[in-house]
Amino acid sequence: MKAFSIILLRILALYIALNPLLALAPMLFGPGSTESYDEWLVTLIAMIVMPLIVGAVLWLVAEPLANKIHPANNADSQLSLHELGLVRAGSFLIGVYLTLQHIGTAISQWIWSGSIAYGSLVVIALGVGLIVGVNFIGELYKKIKYAGSGL
């Protein structure tokens, strides 16, 4: 299960790093005025460079994160490791994705309009909660699955 989590973390790292580049490639490499690049520089840094850095860091720390997501103890004998491991890994990956997507949105809105994107801040908080609480989500899943069965 750890090897599967490492692969998923590295796929997420590639997606995080390459998705903003692919989305903004027409603006960066298409015809247009080069004078407007100075206006967009802060946004480009927030929306391209930051995901590149986070993607590279996530790629490098994929193995230690997988070890943290899947603890070595075998106390979960009632539930198969595959199912519980997928819930833990999935909640972690969803949390990373939500956090990174909305950090860029919150920074851009604050820089361009000076207002705070409260919706993005709520999603960032939920994403961080999913990242930090992977074991809690796994335990909650176990309780919901076996509710009323006496296990």
Architecture overview:
The chain is mainly alpha-helical. Helices cover 79% and strands 0% of the residues. It is built from 6 helices and no strands. The protein has helices at residues 2-29, 37-60, 62-69, 81-113, 118-132, 134-145. Helix 1 (2-29) crosses helix 3 (62-69) and helix 1 runs parallel beside helix 4 (81-113). The longest helix has 33 residues, at 81-113. It is flat. The model has no long low-confidence stretch (mean pLDDT 78).
Helix content: over 70%
Strand content: under 5%
Shape: flat
- Rounded mean pLDDT score: 78
Low-confidence parts lasting 5 or more residues at pLDDT below 50?
A: none
Number of helices: 6
Radius of gyration: 19 Å
Q: Give me the secondary-structure category.
A: mainly alpha
The termini sit apart by: 24 Å
N-to-C SSE string, H for helix and E for strand: HHHHHH
Biggest sheet, in brief? none
**Number of extended strands:** 0
Characterize this entry briefly.
With 151 residues, this protein is mostly helical. Helix content is 79%, strand content 0%.
Chain-wise SSE layout:
Elements: H1 2-29, H2 37-60, H3 62-69, H4 81-113, H5 118-132, H6 134-145
What descriptors fit this protein?
single chain; 151 residues; mainly alpha; 6 helices; 79% helix; 0% strand
